[in-house]
């Protein structure tokens, strides 16, 4: 398969990588860089477990080609807590009991982080809509939406 060299920043670190042209960003993160915090759920853009930030936008990394990451700033869950200090969003998830098995959590945290950084003015219904692309098999969403509200400073 054809390869291409890309240059990007991942969690603040500049990297130059050789990737396959058909490789997804999700595969690149998990298999090549061993950043396994980003989860593979459906693999077809329906569950949100693979959400990462590309230039501040939350995207499904299973649908985003690694070659498209060239020149971009990528953030994954591994880059969020600094020196053991959770972010405000991560703290909200813990405080609201929004984590059970944790499989969906990195994706939710990245999406909520993007919303918080953009200064989203969503009310509870708006947050539900914004996060509707994420699936959770454990928590029933109530606590997750509570956490999102808390992280937005609306609670
Ligand atoms: S693994 Fe990407 S949306 Fe489900
Ligand atoms: S906490 Fe288990 S899938 Fe969401």
From TrEMBL:
CDD domains tied to this protein: fer2
UniProt keyword annotation of tRNA processing present: no
Residues annotated as domain 2Fe-2S ferredoxin-type: 4-80
InterPro entries the UniProt entry points to: 2Fe-2S-bd, 2Fe-2S-bd_dom_sf, 2Fe-2S_ferredoxin-like_sf, 2Fe-2S_ferredoxin-type, 2Fe2S_fd_BS, Beta-grasp_dom_sf, Diverse_Oxidoreductases, XdhC_XDHase
GO MF annotation list: 2 iron, 2 sulfur cluster binding; metal ion binding; xanthine dehydrogenase activity
Domain of life: Bacteria
Pathway(s) served: Alkaloid degradation; nicotine degradation
Record carries keyword Cytoplasm: no
Any GO BP annotation: purine nucleobase metabolic process
SUPFAM superfamilies hit by this protein: 2Fe-2S ferredoxin-like, CO dehydrogenase ISP C-domain like
A Pfam family the protein falls into: Fer2_2
UniProt keywords, alphabetically: 2Fe-2S, Iron, Iron-sulfur, Metal-binding, Oxidoreductase
Gene3D superfamilies: 3.10.20.30, [2Fe-2S]-binding domain
Protein name: 2Fe-2S iron-sulfur cluster binding domain-containing protein
Lineage: Bacteria, Bacillati, Bacillota, Clostridia, Eubacteriales
